[in-house]
Amino acid sequence: MRYAVTSILSGMALALALSAPAFAGPVEDAEAAYAADQKGDFATSMKLYQQSAAGGNAYAMYSIGLIYFDGKGVDRSYVNALKYYKMASDKGYPQAQLAMGKMTEQGQGVKKNLPEAIKYYTLAANQGITEAQNLLGVAYTTGDPAQKVNPDPAQAYAWFTIASKEDASANTRAQRMKGRLTPEQIAAADKIIASYKPKK
């Protein structure tokens, strides 16, 4: 009798386990959100991205920022885009760091701030984001004395050279910049290039 009862209880437990819905985590929510976005179901996509972001998923935070930036299924809001990009950036998501840099440099939803933009570009560039490396090169080429950023040809040359590993057009900019450098500046830039190792 005891064996029969145990068998029945075990069977019920197995049936409940098999019938219970699987609870999605942040990664699964983000994947489902992407799938909904591809189908044009923006309301579902946003809801799932928000669930995933609440669970700490940096990709979901970045994606919500992108939705607000593009105004896809919601009213465009640079302020909200910045909010979510910042959340993802603080968790080390490089595409969000790049986005923060671009919005900060261009003054979208925030006052223009080139030093702050350079900070974010550097974070993304150090994670191997080629566009951020190129934008650093541009920022150091032109500078902005009004924002206390002086041109730095050695830094510009170094970042263009680093970017040229993935972007052939950056090599042209690097060589053009190199022609403006003193031997001392070239040596300083070469140290930056030699020590560069993208973070994972």
Overall description:
By secondary structure, the protein is mainly α. It has a domain at 122-200. Helix content is 72%, strand content 0%. The chain is built from eleven helices and no strands. The chain has helices spanning 2-19, 26-38, 42-54, 58-70, 78-90, 94-106, 114-125, 130-142, 153-163, 168-178, 183-195. Helix 2 packs antiparallel against helix 3, helix 5 (78-90) crosses helix 6 and helix 9 (153-163) packs across helix 11 (183-195). It is elongated. The relative contact order is 0.07. Mean pLDDT is 90; it is low at 1-22.
Largest sheet: none
Q: Average pLDDT across residues?
A: 90
Structural class: mainly alpha
From the N-terminal CA to the C-terminal CA, the straight-line distance is: 60 Å
Q: How many helices in DSSP terms?
A: 11
Indicate the low-confidence ranges by residue numbers. 1-22
Task: Give the CA-based shape.
Answer: elongated
